[in-house]
Amino acid sequence: MKAFIKLIVAAAVAAFLLLIWQGVGFYRYAHRPAGSGTEEIFTVTRGEKFIALAARLEASGIIAHASKFKLLAELRGVDKKLKAGEYRLTAAMTPMEVQDVLVSGKSRLYRLTIPEGFTLRQIAAEVAARGLGQADKFIALATSPAYVATLHIEAKTLEGYLFPDTYYFAKSASEDTIIRTMVARFNEEFSPEWRRRAKQLHRSVHEIVTLASIIEKETGVPSERPIIASVFQNRLRKGMRLESDPTVIYGIPNFDGNIKRVDLRTPTPYNTYKIRGLPPGPIANPGREAIKAALYPAKTDYLFFVAKKDNTHHFSTNIRDHQNAVRKYQLRHRKKRNP
Questions:
Q1: Does residue 229 contact residue 215 with C-beta atoms inside 8 Å?
Q2: Host domain of residue 61
Q3: Three-state SS string across 66-99, please?
Q4: Per the confidence metrics, is the pTM higher than 0.90?
């Protein structure tokens, strides 16, 4: 009987020592890098199973023993916390460090710069060109009235509300995430003060953004924006048509880059040579200064402007002076180009 008890005790001690040995080994595994090497970008796909991820990590040499890596993650409670994205990893990192990176969400970010005056479709194309999403999905969301309503934007599409700026997104970012970030940026810029100013002008936010988009497309010279804004505000106040070429262009499907007289005569919701007042919505996504100009136009009596060769404009208060300016800066220039 004593011999049997001794055997049981010995077996228990052996099992305990084995457990300690395994525990020490597991501890060493958790804190020991698989090797050394240069940093590489490792992609975690959305919905990927942890065991599949561990196998890929082992195959790439970043970790050793995928099964131990998975067990370690389960013991730490991080196996269900993976975040899709691109991560900078190296075999010189310990398994615990690798796991910490993969659940941090701090994936590699890509720069996305949207210039002032880009249209919704141009933005979608840029998103796709940067590998951050699909243009058709981006457009489908941004032109869905139901989706737009969820963002509390009082418009049928998000044209005008995708704020031009430089953004940084992970490759795993969805089209929805990108759009919401841009709209949030718009809401940050269009401050309560600006909303009060719009009411003072008896204009809705949508009308101000629409006007700002036309200002943005009419000039690339910052100092001219408040003056351009004053021309349009003066014309609106007098009940005159805006007669803005960029609005006409926006209403032409598959515009080929050459505006023709027939285009100016063709009725569309955006042809401000035919309609009075503002078009139904923005024709581009204006930047801060264009919106500010729409809210705080210069005080002038100008009613007309014509482009000069240096991309600035000549402004006039009456049609006779305007026609003279057109002959000077436009017709004469065309004759020189087409002798």
A1: yes
A2: 31-107
A3: HHHHHHHHHHHCCCCCCCCEEEEECCCCCHHHHH
A4: no
